[in-house]
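Q: Hi! Curious about what Delta-aminolevulinic acid dehydratase looks like structurally. Here's the sequence.
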Amino acid sequence: MAIKYGRPIELREVSRREGTAVPHTLDLTVRPRRNRKAEWARRMVRENVLTTDDLIWPLFLIDGNNKREQVASMPGVERLSVDQAVREAERAMKLTIPCIALFPYTEPSLRDEEGSEATNPNNLVCQAVRAIKKEFPEIGVLCDVALDPFTSHGHDGLISDGKILNDETVAVLVRQALVQAEAGCDIIAPSDMMDGRVAAIREGLDRSGLLDVQIMAYAAKYASAFYGPFRDAIGSAKTLTGDKRTYQMDSANTDEALREVELDIAEGADMVMVKPGMPYLDVVRRVKDTFAMPTFAYQVSGEYAMIAAAANNGWLDGERAMMESLLAFKRAGADGVLSYFAPKAAEKLRSQG
Ligand SMILES: NCc1[nH]cc(CCC(=O)O)c1CC(=O)O
Ligand SMILES: [Mg+2]
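A: Let's find out. The predicted structure is below.
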């Protein structure tokens, strides 16, 4: 008997035997609502679940001591001095969030055309990695590789005559990745979208004996308006000249995303990422189905800001919107999500038992 979506086709068009329907009821054999009639029944047929293991929590760093500074465009998100970041790492651990990601706000005086601070083994990111891994070696630490927090022009790479240089930038990114890995970073995450950077970083790590350091490639990263609040948080919003469309992807494309992901896997990526998240769930699904790799999505700053702002205005239930948005990533096939909601979502998940 031919079976399609759980019901024998032969039974489909058959209506009920004469006279079985109670008066004033529709003559329906199939009533999908039966499986939704109570919480226990909904739990029984639920296809996807979100757990704390699915969360990666991005933190913003700032120089100083005992300092926490609100990010205006991301209500509830703060820039943290290293000691405070260590406290948040502890909070992440207690919430069983497996991994945190670190992003620095670099003092303007330390920014230059070449982003030299990126390769300083004692920069803010490296200090934070050392401090966190010293106190909490059991939590995963991910570091972003790109020059934008360190360049005076806010671009992810070196510039000459208004052009972002690919190969010259890759050489600097390798050095940036190495100082981070040597500080104790567990996952190197290149977000720059230069061609060939994953292979170059893998080779650099291996040559230095850092064989176990993982690479999570921002493989399909789009030129997006949704990064606005992040650039505010790391202080590059005001200085960024032009846009990033010569290196980040065109939001009209998905075949191209598959080619980008394929290259990064071939170059040695252990995990791949799609970014932004919610507007690109179709890409997440295609990537997961095509490559069956550990696949992550970044629910970026603008996505966070939209939900947080609407919630603060009383326009939607912030907690429910948060959980629904995170579950959507699981439904699309993601193995995990980088999200500024991570601690709140983890608290919610743990309170549910
Ligand atoms: N290359 C840096 C980088 N790494 C992560 C984000 C955005 C994250 C977010 O918006 O939350 C960006 C911004 C950008 O590419 O301009
Ligand atoms: Mg690429």
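A: A fun detail: DSSP finds eleven helices and 14 strands in the chain.
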